[in-house]
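call fold(seq) -> tokens
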Amino acid sequence: MIRLLRSILAIFCFTLFGAGAGVISFVIFPFISLTKQEAKQKEAYSEVIRKSWSFFSWIMSVTGVLKIHTADKEKFQSLSGKIVVANHPTFIDVVILISMIPRSTCLAKKETLSNPLFRNIVKSIYIINDIDPDKLKQETERYLKEGFNIIIFPSGTRTKPGEDFKIHKGPAAIALNSGAEILPVKIKTDYPFLQKGQLFCDLGERVINYTVETGEIINPADFAALPEIKARNAISDLIKKRIAG
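ret:
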């Protein structure tokens, strides 16, 4: 009975999330594009997403779907021009991180453009990760210089706790190109939740504890003496060490 009730709560939460995405994509973002100067639009898009996804996180908390724990709220709120790299255990990791981090964007898969609810959101504020490498460097550097924080899951896909995973070199390349510091983030849950291949309504029988912890900053300047390939490899190895759980 408890599992059934929690499944109903999950359906409610994600129906609300989808409805909210539709309103943002088809009403709020077009309104912003018409009423704000182009230079101010991305900041407005980012703030709308942060506030709406903060509300979604709050809904999940008050309904007992999950409880989000972090001792680093103030650190997240003060971030500016950082590359945030995290492990990726659940489908909503990016939602929760963006709800905590102001002026944030993320690397998004090209496939997200095929989702009618999210297409306009992705095109407006996020960076497609499979564009030309030189263009990716230019675009990420521009966002970082403007004070945006870029969230990246260097595994490229969801992974299970304890599972070995490969780290893509993209975050290291972006850091070396822009000079931006990297903030490692480790995400943990005490019950398998929205993992790859798992039903979204499988919530178990109790509140899920979702924990977000920050690690020590990685400064690309510390690797300046190394050849570029070795520097990318060394930074990538350090990222994996600090986000693997």
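The beta strands are 66-70, 83-86, 104-108, 127-128, 149-152, 182-189, 208-214.
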